[in-house]
Structures are given as structure tokens and as C-alpha cells.
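Give me C-alpha cells for this 605-residue protein.
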Amino acid sequence: MTSRQSQSQSTGSDRQNPAGSELPLLDRARAWAESDPDPATAEELRSLIRAAEGSDPAAKATAESKIASMFNGRLEFGTAGLRGAIAPGPNRMNVAVVRHTAAGLARFLTAEAKRSGFSSAPHVVIGFDARHRSADFARESAGVLTAAGLAVSVLPSALPTPVLAFALRELGADAGIMVTASHNPPADNGYKVYLGGRVVTGPGQGAQIVPPYDGQIASAILEDLAPADEIPTAESGWTVLDADVRERYIAAALEALGPAEHELSIVTTAMHGVGGATLVDLLRRAGYTRVTPVAEQQEPDPDFPTVSFPNPEEPGAIDLALKTAEREGADLVIANDPDADRCAVAALDPELGAWRMLRGDELGAVFGAWALERIADGAADGGADGAGGGDGQNVVANSVVSSRLLGAMAEAAGVEHRQTLTGFKWIAREAGLRFGFEEAIGYLVTPGLVRDKDGITAGLAIAHIAASLKAEGRTLFDVLDELYLKHGVHQTDQLSLRLGSISLVTPLMGRLRTAPPESLGGSDVVEVVDLSEGWEALPPTDGLLYLTRDRSRVIVRPSGTEPKLKAYIETIVEADTTSELAAAKETAQERIARIREDLSDALGL
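Here you go.
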């Protein structure tokens, strides 16, 4: 074990807190650079300091602005862990911030072990993707946690987030760290934290953190912000897991979902992330012989060169996959985001005569129909805890901003349905869970394996669904039409408003609270719910819900991590016969368009 001590001659207050707000900006930057364990970010910051002290007015102003942004508070630790651009300073992702975070997590886990009387040291398993600095941040975390006396296991290579979530539960670890920024831009990285083992038991075991754990860990981080080069860090002493951890995940997924019963031609894209090989291996071992990865996007590349934004939902992101599908005469496109916890699907829509991606809510409905059929057939979800919690329940769940269609389907099937707050950290901890989804292409089809969204097992499940439908002469779109005839056309959409500053979010939410719209899409608003006061079984969250007389629903909420407001829109139009479906869909789309206009007016856009 080593503890690197700086030979600095700076003042004691500088050394105690190099980001201390009591110091002038450039003094804070100098102190941070002096204690930065990473020579690269230290030099980047020193270069900016030199420019800020130079004589070129333009360069000086630019450098000062960049430094101010880097030191404008600390990168906030919350239920999503950390996420931000890689750069120096307390408000960015870097080795120093990672060390502080790992040290705080170690303090939290050590306190939990003492409080609960653990018989052995807390055990943490760490995974990482292929983004810039991910392996470095994982290694730094392992060093700090090991030096703090914790048992640490590290995944053997850059692997999908679902493999980390699986390993956490399989090993019975008390906590998990996944170094990833998911589908953020190339300049970003992040730090997801899971709790399980002896810290969190029951159905939430192995899920991402929720309150009060986020606040407790954040407090533990702030408890001691010593200079990063003074935080004890071990050079070795942790365990690197064998490569077969990925094989065990694949085997468990195959056991849970079974082999292919019919052939299907599938195109996959990893979006330059870490899920490519795992998804292709899983599909081929399941029996799908016609699997074609998009070659240009199959290997991990932290610069994501073929896409403007590495999110399958973004316009143009799956264009290469669609071209490959047309060339191969494929039946299905499966796209993962870079850490492979999300899954997007595209298919040839007979109504349009063209390929299109299913919306997250549409795919959620297709998975929901499949899950409800499995429940009726008594199929297991794959895992020692049976129906997701060992309590004999059968539950399907989705976030409150997702479509209401799954709830209608579950009610008709006599299966319990639950709504949760936004985020899989809430969905995954529902007792008795058999299937959960959120509209942002997140699906959990094997809750016995992982307690998080999983784009790999979702990929195999949708292949099974599409293959069975093809054998019957049907498509995914036929399933949707059948559901619409039974429960009404559930059309969903979003309105996303990016603001110049996060300080503008509160005034806009206040405007909606004090002057709510009286009608939306030509229908009177009959119910207004301030979600910050709680609603039905949901705990309080910052958001507003509007319900109209024609059953349209709008939920407006802040992003939470970005200066953005998001509005989730859904309308329901009944269709009694197949001949009425097209008109019902058109009516729903027109209504959605009018609602978007009314929302823009209500927000003063």
C-alpha cells in the first residue's frame, strides 16, 4: 500500500481543500493542479492557468471561463452516481474526483459493516466500459477501496453494464461500481453505484442506489476532501475476475430465456460500445445462425466516429444498421447503447413499407404481452429467487412517464401492475417483478439475473418473439395492432426543452404550477397533480401531471442532471375494428401534435 504525499510548499488550507471556495479562482486551480495525481489533467489545468495569466485578452477570457466552469461547485453525487466531462477540477470527471468518491464509498460501506456487524470486510465488484479513462478510473477505485481495507473484485476487461450487475448478485457483493457514461457524448464519463449483499437485502438487492443511500454516500464523500494525492491507494491486492464471468452471464441468460425455436435474420449494432461480442455470442449460442453485426460499429471506440450522438434513439444513429439490414434482407435490427443496458429494435413496418424503430413504449408493450403470456404459462424468469423476489408474486412494472398500455394489459390478464418513479433503480426493486420497462428503451426481462435494465437479454428475448411471430406469418406491428384493438391506440411522444442554464428550470416549473394549461389538444384539463406532493403510491418527485377529459396525459419534469425540461405525452384513441385502426392512429398523431403546441404556449416558448 502506498500513500502518495505531495512535496508542495503551499499553505495548509490549500492542501486541506484544493477546491476550497475561500481561495481566489486561480489559486484554487493551482492548488488542485499541485495535488492532482494525474499528470495529464494537472498539465491541462496548468496550461489554462498560464493562458489566464497571459497577455492575450481573448485567450485569457476563454481560459478563465473554462477554469471557472471546472471549479463552479463539485460534480454532484446522486442516485445516478456521477456523470460529467473528463477534465480537471472538482466539477469534472478525473482521477482526483474518482479517488474522493471511492474514499467516500469506502467510508459509507465501512460504517454499514460496523453498524450491521459484518463478519468480513465489505466486498465491492467493479466494472468498466471502453470510454476514455474508464479502465483508469476502475483501477483507481480498486486501489482506494483496497487501501481502505475492503475486498475488491474487478471485471477482467471492458464489459457491458449488465455483466457487472450480474456479477454483483452472483458474487453476493455488498456494492458494485460501473465506470460508464452510458450513451453520453464521447467527452464524458461516469460512475454508477449499486448496493446489494449485506447492505441491501430483499427485491432491491443489487439495484442502483436510491435515497437515502445516495445522500449518505454523498455525505461520506464530503466528510474528508483531503488532497487527492494524499488519499491512501494500494498498488495491488484486489482480485481480477476470470474471463468466464461473461460466460456465466451468457449461460444464465440462455437458461432463463431458452434456445431459438425458429430461424431469423438479425442485424446488430453495438454503437461502438462494449456489448457487441456479448450480444452476438448470446444470439448465436441460442441458435440464431444468421446474425450480422454492423462492422463499422462492432468494436469499442470511445470516440464513436460513425454517430453524432451514441444513443440508438437519436436520429441517424442506426442508419448503418438499417442499410445493413436492407442489404442482408434481415428481419430484425437490435441496437444497444454503448454500455449495453438499453435495447432498441427496428423492423420493416408493413403499413409504411419501410423500416422504422419501435418507440420505447411500443417495444415495452410487445415485451409486456410476451411477459404476461410467460406468467400465464408458468415460465420462470431465470434466477434462484424465482419470481424476482421469492414471494410468489407476479408483477409487471413501468415508470410513471411510460405508457399506460402495460397497466391496461396487466389488468385484463389479472396480473398486478405497478408504477414507479422514473429510473430503473426504482423499477428493479419492485417485489415479485417479472418484467419492467421505461420508455427510454430500458427493459428488464430476466429480473432473477440482474436488477437493472439489460439490453443483452432484451436482445435475445425480442429475437425469440420476432422469430415466433415470423413462423406464424405475423410481425411485431401485428402484436401492437392487436393490443390497440383491445385496449385503444396508445400514442406517445415527448417534448424536450433544453435551457441555457439549470437555474431556469425552477422558474419554468413554477410558471406551470401557478398557471397550468386549461386544455391540451382541444380537450379540457380535468386533473392537475403536483407530483412533488406525492401521488397514489409514488413518493414525492419534482413533476406535474395533467389529465384531460379525452384521457390524454402529460407529465412534465426536469431532467435532473441537465438544464432541460421533458414533457411525456400520451393520448388514447379507441378503435373497435381493424378497419378503424388507421383512422384512430391518425387521430392520435394529430392530437399529439396539438398537445405539443399547447405545451409550448404554456411554457411561453
